[in-house]
Design brief:
The chain has about 350 residues and is of the alpha+beta class. About 35% of the residues lie in helices and about 25% in strands. The strands form six sheets. The chain has a six-stranded mixed beta sheet with strand order 4-3-2-1-5-6, with helices on both faces. The chain has a four-stranded mixed beta sheet with strand order 8-9-12-20, covered by helices on one side. Strands 7-10-11 form a three-stranded antiparallel beta sheet. The protein is elongated and about 70 Å long. It starts with 7 loop residues before the first strand and ends with a strand. Bound molecules: manganese (II) ion (MN).
Length: about 350
Amino acid sequence: MLEKELQTLIINSSPNVYYLSGFTGTNATLFITLENSYLLTDFRYLEQAEKEAEQYEILRVDNDLLETLGMLAKGFSSVGIEEDYISWADFRLMREALPACVLLDASNIVSEMRQVKDEAEVEILRQAITITDQAFVQILEKINPGITEEEIGLELEFALRRRGASGRSFEFIVASGERSALPHGVATAKNINRGELLTFDFGAKYKWYCSDLTRTLFVGEPKPKHREIYEIVLEAQEAALGAIKPGLSGKEVDAVAREIIGKFGYGEYFGHGLGHSVGLEIHETPRLNTKENRILEPGMIITVEPGIYIPDWGGVRIEDMALVTKNGVEVLTQAPKQFIIID
Ligand SMILES: [Mn+2]
């Protein structure tokens, strides 16, 4: 806050509220000054907030959030808000409620703090990843020609939740056949048929943290081109994973995979970034893509997920999560990565 010349900070987004305070309810606003921190919530959450957010002074607000913020902000001339999260309507109301304050964007303050995970966070993420790896292996038995994409999605969610996940970390992608060329093809009622690629991209929400795993497999008997594409994606993925180390930019890691896919002539079919950080949210910074200048640091947890998507044919994506370590990288995902064929 000092660096950014902010006297006060207003935080509303749930992941940031949780990260800073430990509060898990759905309604809270943090008001932070250099001396004090307040958590404003309504009657429903008072007791919970006292327990979870021990370092915050809890204030009850019912329909008077803006008045209370106005009172707390008296005497201050600047306030940081989360531009990435606040609606235009709330922004206007806040500007009226805090007439003496300049409103500045402070989205980066907390998201930058969240980039490097501490030991406790890494431990939770490891568990979230293990749950996901186990769910993947378990689900393999259930995949047979005739099962629908939605049924697979449901089975995956059962498998995750039976292992302690509180839910899914995003809308699962289960895309078979030509649909596997859709990088974000969410599960539909389509049946899985023999002779089809099957991509699923899913993850657990576990103790508020997210995991993310993608595997592509084949049902029936693959043609040489299926194997060829799979091997190229795998080579690109493993090369990029192996290249990760502190000091590299997201752009540099992205280039490792992009170069390999390009070398085989499929560059135009890899139209998205290589990966993203993961934590309380499924997509965090830094990213791995052609524009990312942020530098990798030990403690960051990122996905590496190159893909090749050929319209009217199908697609392959392989995704692992990895921890940037002091000297390099530790791949956290343990799910098998060879070309799995279900016959
Ligand atoms: Mn991902």
